Amino acid sequence: MNDASSQMIVFEDVSKFYGEILGVNRVNLSVAPGITSLVGPNGAGKTTLMNLMTGLLRPTRGQISILGVSPDEPEELFRRVGYCSQFDSFPRGVTGREFVNMFLSVHGYGKGEADELTMKALERVSLTDAAEKKVAAYSKGMRQRVRLAQSVAHNPSVLILDEPLNGLDPMARAETIRLFRQLADEGLHLVISSHILHEVDMMSDCVVLLNNGYVVAEGDVHGVRDEMDEEHPMQILIRCDKPGALAARVFEQAQIVEARIHDDRRGLFIKTRDADKFYLLLNEVVAEGLVSVESVTPVDDDLSAVYQYLIGSETEGSNV
Fold this sequence. Notes:
Elements: E1 9-18, E2 21-31, E3 34-39, H1 46-53, E4 61-66, H2 74-80, E5 81-84, H3 96-106, H4 111-124, H5 140-152, E6 158-162, H6 170-185, E7 189-193, H7 197-203, E8 206-211, E9 214-219, H8 221-227, E10 234-240, H9 243-250, E11 256-261, E12 267-272, H10 275-287, E13 293-298, H11 303-311
Parallel strand pairs: 3-7, 3-8, 5-6, 6-7
Antiparallel strand pairs: 1-2, 1-4, 8-9, 10-12, 10-13, 11-12
């Protein structure tokens, strides 16, 4: 294992089949420190990838390495990995403090150290006031946060978080995203699955788009968008005083696929295969005084649009 691989989460030609049913197929990924979000419809393979990382599933073929450690080494793996699953279940009658503390005891921490780490983890997720309340009495959002506290309590290097924003109110989601960014800035690897695309777009360093068990794209959202083929030209809305005159100029360019005046007659909607060339042309048009531009907005330069382009509108099915 080289030094670079020991700092990465690495999938090498990994496939997982459930009998004849495909979980994931031929996955090759190298996940660097920071926040990597797994995005895709239900059944795309997000949970399968996470369970493979934690050793809860074994690959049908291929190799997985978590910072140089194989999932076949569970004791060493779980010193490095924290896992927050999407399943909402707890031992009967336990308090929030006991729930986190029992997990640390399994890791072999002594009572004093386990108590200290427990309260620190509960503080990180703003649950110290509810530490002695039974988890059964928690709201859904509080149960989500105590599971997150358990996953970070032993100070792992890797956090694997399956739908961690589910059930949180807007303020708790914002606080949790700030915690994720803080952990990423400390050098941790965070692998997160989520359906809340605008929040994924806001917090992620890298996105991995999955569909039907295959990785269909990876990278930062702008890089993924730049690599999309000519079937999906960039869409841009230009607010200006003379959209008709601008339309006449842009149609001189071969890379322009469509130019359509906005319904309010105060803007031009264009589709282009080469955004850079279009922006150069727009600069020339403005310099010539042909139009006065109020704003330029890439209509689809976000994760939601890229997601729709690459994996369509499929939302039905169940997670594998």
